[in-house]
Amino acid sequence: RANNLKIVSITLARGGSQEVPRKNIKSLNGKPLIYYVLSSIKSAGINERWVSTDDQEIADISNSFGANILMRPPEMALNTSKCEEALRHFSNNVDFDVMAFVQTTSPMIKPDYIKQGIEMMRSGYDSVFTAYKEHWAPRWSLEVDPIGWETHKRPRRQQVRENYVENGSFYMTTREAFKKTGVRYSGKIGVVEMPFSESFQVDSYDDFSLIERLMK
Questions:
Q1: How many CB atoms lie within 10 A of CB 143?
Q2: 98: phi then psi, degrees, rounded to nearest 5
Q3: What residues form DSSP beta bridges with 216?
Q4: Catalytically annotated residues
């Protein structure tokens, strides 16, 4: 694929967040949460950064960090709204070849991972996402039944294949693939592997204080 792909980023930041009110602009080490991903995206070389929001204050703050704003209809910013709806709204309103959907909740995302994703998209992947490798650990259902193993034949960790676990930092996909499927990953899918220690998402007050400590 040519190097002249138009790559833009999109970050979804609605005003109503359930667990932590106004999470997207809550202060983390003295900066609004959304600042961190916007600044990583910029350092990764994506010049056109977009924020899709239903909230004027979030729009103003994001704009002060150089992001373009797409105001999204309130019915696409409910607790029940799926990201895909907002991404569809974005793809109907903004021109791109590749959309890098970077989530506000990943303030620790390094520009290098975003660059790696861009390189993969340039080399012919239709979609990529970030994940960490998980070693096998015995999992149990809430009814206390072992999931996928037996108590009298507990495997050794080394015997079980590792898996990728999505960490939600970012997803990239081409306009064609998204148009065809309406979902964030399809076609030839690649993984940008990140360490578990950098895979934390900020979703609760506990996460905020944990990540503040980790980032210091």
A1: 5
A2: -130, 130
A3: none
A4: 154
Distance CA 49, CA 41 (A): 8
d(CA 99, CA 95): 9
Give, for 48, the enclosing helix (H) or strand (E): strand 48-53
- Amino acid residing at 139: R
One-letter amino acid identity for 200?
A: F
pTM across the whole model:
0.91
Nearest-angstrom CA–CA distance, 9 and 43: 12
**Alpha-carbon dihedral angle through residues 176, 178, 180, 181, given to the nearest 10 degrees:** 160
How confident is the model at residue 20, as a pLDDT? 85
Low-confidence spans in the chain with pLDDT less than 70:
1-3
List the end-to-end C-alpha distance of the chain, in Å, as a whole number: 40
Which residues, 6 or more positions from 79, have their beta carbon under 8 angstroms from its beta carbon?
16, 18
- Give the pairing of strands 7-12 and 48-53: parallel
Radius of gyration of the chain (CA): 19
State the pLDDT at residue 2: 58
- According to DSSP, the residues that pair with 154 across neighbouring strands are none
Distance CA 91, CA 58 (A): 20
